[in-house]
Structures are given as structure tokens and as C-alpha cells.
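Notes taken during the Thursday session

The instructor put the following on the board and asked us to keep it in front of us for the whole hour. The protein is Cytochrome c oxidase subunit 5A, mitochondrial. We were told not to look anything up and to reason only from what is written here. First, the residues (108 in total):
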Amino acid sequence: MALFGNVVCILAGVYAGIYLDQNYNTRDAIPDPNIITAVLKACRHQNDFPLALRFLETVQLKCGPHKKVVWPWLVQQIKPTLDDLGVPTPEEIGYDKPELYLEDVMDM
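Then, after some discussion, the predicted C-alpha cells were revealed:
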């Protein structure tokens, strides 16, 4: 949490999108669930649903090769906040597959 320690204080008074666009995408670390919760609440405070969803997608991408282990744990930790704010996970709305996803012919 040392890397993202100031995020909660910044998000309390500053628009979340500005901070995320300028600072978050330059770091490789996966944020703590408390930080994810604070960002989601700030997005909800600003009624910026697309930013909340894009942030969740970015966190999912930052899990990298450990996605199968880390992402379910993160979702388990932030699920009460997601339910409270009404924000779905990327999988719940079908963002885990490309829009024009077709089943591979060789798998049929």
C-alpha cells in the first residue's frame, strides 16, 4: 500500500479520472483492495461509470500471468463494494471476450 498510499487522500477531493489518467497507468503494481474500493467510490461520487469499468479492466490487465489466482481474490475482496455501488465486473457484462468473438472452427 506504500506505493498507492496517497491515492485515498487525493481521491477524497480531486476528480478520480484526472488522477488515474496521469498517474495510475504508469505503475505496474496491482493496487490493494482498499485502493480499488476508494477509486470505485470516487468514480461513483462523480457518476463516472465508464471510468470505474475501465479501472477494473486495467486492474485485471495488471494481474498479468497471475490473473487466474489474483483476479478472483481481488473480486472476492471488493465484491461487497461492487454490489453496493451497482458496478458489475468486466466478466458480468461480457467484457472478458472481444465484441466480435467467434468460436474457433477447430474447436467445433
